[in-house]
Amino acid sequence: MSAIKKILNTLLRFAEVIFIGMIVYCFYDASKQEYIGNKAAGVILAIIFIALFAMCIGIEVLKIGYSNKCPSCGKWFALKKQGREYIGSEKISVAVSTHSEEYHRDGTKTGRYSVGQQYVPGVKETYHINYICKKCGKSCYSTEYNRHASF
Questions:
Q1: In the chain, which residues have pLDDT < 70?
Q2: What pLDDT, on a 0 to 100 scale, did the predictor assign at position 1?
Q3: In whole angstroms, how large is the CA radius of gyration of the chain?
């Protein structure tokens, strides 16, 4: 699920950049036109891209508000971070990507390489992120995991 969220966030950021570029281009193109109809068409296109850009910003604001929603009272933008508490750690296997050069029989490099994945010993650390609601005053927490290899 987090991979889908990352892809959607990347697409949203990309759309924002495209909309800003199109807004600038539409206004620039409208200023170069001689006929009033062509200028009006450029300005209308720019206004459409401004509306689309505003929708992207609105989606970003709604995402932030929903992620800071209090589980007790349900108010958006209500949680305030209080701190981070270390809970514990456990030993796990962590996948790391490997990068190895390929060689000819005589020992010279071929210029190619192979990429793979290998599991190595690692540690998973668990943290509780403590929050307090600015509206109702109740506290809550979310759990965060930090996985890394221990060489």
A1: 1, 151
A2: 56
A3: 25
